Amino acid sequence: MSSLKKIPSPLVSLLPIGLLVGMLFATIHTFGSDALGGGSQISLLTTTAFCVFIGMAFYRVPWKDYELAITNNIAGVATAIIILLIIGALSGAWMISGIVPTLIYYGMQIIHPDFFLASTCIICALISVMTGSSWTTIATIGIALMGIGKAQGFNEGWIAGAIISGAYFGDKISPLSETTILASSITDVPLFRHIRYMLITTTPSLVITLIIFTVMGFVIETNSTEHMTDFAVSLKDTFVITPWLLIVPIVTGILIARKTPSIITLFLSTLLAGICAIIFQPDLLREIAGGSNLFKGAMMTFYGSTSLNTGNTMLTDLVSTRGMAGMMDTVWLILCAMCFGGAMTASGMLGSITSVFVRFMKGRVSVVASTVCSGLFLNLTTADQYISIILTGNMFRNIYEKKGYENRLLSRTTEDAVTVTSPLIPWNTCGMTQATILNVSTLTYLPYCFFNIISPLMSILVAAIGYKIVKRPVNNPE
Fold first, then answer.
1. Which of 2, 152, 270, 408 is 20 to 30 A away from residue 45, measured at CA?
2. Are 300 and 306 a contacting pair, CB within 8 Å?
3. Which 8-state DSSP code applies to residue 435?
4. CA distance 5 to 464
5. What is the dihedral angle through the alpha carbons of 217, 223, 225, 227, rounded to the nearest 10 degrees?
6. What is the 3-state secondary structure (H, E, C) of the chain?
7. Among residues 55, 58, 49, 3, which one has the least CA distance to residue 347?
8. Where would I find the Na+/H+ antiporter NhaC-like C-terminal domain in this sequence (predicted)?
9. Residues facing residue 306 across a β-bridge
10. In the 8-state DSSP scheme, what is residue 7?
């Protein structure tokens, strides 16, 4: 900023981060699973105010700079917020229409419990590669797999970990993925060259992940066949289970394959699910509406909370939906997170902290490790993977060039550090979204997202080995 007289020191810049961590810890300890209902948002806004106070009082950063940065941040996630709201409506419509229950019913008969976790990871990976969207994958097939896993007796953290691991593998290497395209474009690396180079770290990360899920599939004790049979009977007693409902997922897949914009695809899928609900589940819509008005029942399915008495406690919890209204806490949190990220950027604190990483960039390993740490740090502070990818790419591009490393190393490391770690952070847009969609808190599924945890470590390991890392001679050698 032109009005910035001096940049805050890294120590001063860490003060808002320390306050945020402290307030979030106290909030989560006090409110538990209800922390997203307002406590976390207040923590973010309070920290934002503290950051603004330091910048304006001691570093002469005008309010207009903060206002512009915050506005730009919020504008950058506007599309994501719209998608999030539509996903809320889609989740409710797919459940009440019987689409998800049908997928669960048939899936229970096909997927053996011993291979459920590994199969879940592979299924989500394949769908995410084809769609290019981890969000869409998790919001559709992910919800169905969550139901199958619960019916088989798996802990929700393990199920969500397998779903997210697979979904983010696909998101990371799909040529249709926005994050993949963004990372390659920011660093000026051809898309498919970027993807091929990522396979060096991504493939072993997925293989290790699948080995863990396969082994644990045999170790974890699951429900008896009798229990699963009871669950299946409850599904059929509550919903009309028919292969005709599978038309909606098929149509959705076709729209995705034709590269139809995400918002249009999700909207049409939601609309089709609503029509199916009226055709196949009229009794359920009447129950939801509290009368005979099918239109009211369908509308409530889209925007509000629904609860059905299935006679099976676990199934009742599974098929309850929250619609678009259920996403509002997440939308509120995203807006507050964008305020904090904007304040940190405008004050110069973000740049001051990230400059610390540059000082440790001596050899090949330190260059990659610093990029990984910086990307993870930006995910924590800006609370948005897109902003983090852009900042990481721009910040390290000249450094990699000066040190003689290829841009594809930067593009790969950026994705290893940013894309896959975003769902592991409770206040990041991805972490909030996946926790909301799957109805599993971020800290609950975090230990089981093995692919997301292994990927950044694999990036550093490959750098240590030096495999396929080319360095050209430079005039100012290290």
1. 2
2. yes
3. H
4. 40
5. -150
6. CCCCCCCCCHHHHHHHHHHHHHHHHHHHHHHHHHHHHCHHHHHHHHHHHHHHHHHHHHCCCCHHHHHHHHHHHHHHCHHHHHHHHHHHHHHHHHHHCCHHHHHHHHHHHHCCHHHHHHHHHHHHHHHHHHHCCHHHHHHHHHHHHHHHHHHHCCCHHHHHHHHHHHHHHHHHHCCCCHHHHHHHHHCCCCHHHHHHHHHHHHHHHHHHHHHHHHHHHHHCCCCCHHHHHHHHHHHHHHCCCCHHHHHHHHHHHHHHHCCCCHHHHHHHHHHHHHHHHHHHCHHHHHHHHCCCCHHHHHHHHHHCCECCCCCCHHHHHHHCECCHHHHHHHHHHHHHHHHHHHHHHHCCHHHHHHHHHHHCCCCHHHHHHHHHHHHHHHHHHHCCHHHHHHHHHHHHHHHHHHHCECHHHHHHHHHHHHHCCHHHCCCCHHHHHHHHHHCCCHHHHHHHCHHHHHHHHHHHHHHHHCCCCCECCCCCCC
7. 55
8. 166-466
9. 321
10. P
pLDDT tens for each residue of the chain, 478 residues long: 444 457 899 899 889 888 887 887 788 778 765 776 788 889 889 999 999 999 999 998 999 999 999 998 888 778 778 887 887 888 889 889 988 888 878 877 777 888 889 999 998 888 788 667 788 788 878 888 888 888 888 999 999 999 999 999 988 888 767 788 778 877 888 878 888 899 999 999 999 999 999 999 888 887 656 666 777 788 888 899 999 999 998 998 788 778 788 788 889 989 999 999 999 999 999 988 888 789 999 999 999 888 888 777 767 776 778 888 888 877 887 788 788 888 988 998 877 877 776 777 778 898 899 899 888 988 887 777 877 887 787 778 777 887 888 889 999 999 999 999 999 998 787 888 899 889 898 999 999 999 999 999 999 999 999 988 887 765 554 4
Residue appearing with tokens 């995910």: 379
Q: Which DSSP letter does residue 422 get?
A: G
Query: CB count, 10 Å around CB of 429?
Result: 28
First and final CA of the chain: distance in angstroms? 32
What is each CA distance from 274 to 40, 91, 283, 302, 361, in whole angstroms?
A: 34, 11, 14, 8, 54
Two tokens at 24?
């979030």
Distance CA 163, CA 180 (A): 19
- Specify the amino acid at residue 198: M
Dist. CA 478–CA 475, nearest whole Å: 10
> Domain spans of the chain?
10-77+328-465, 79-327
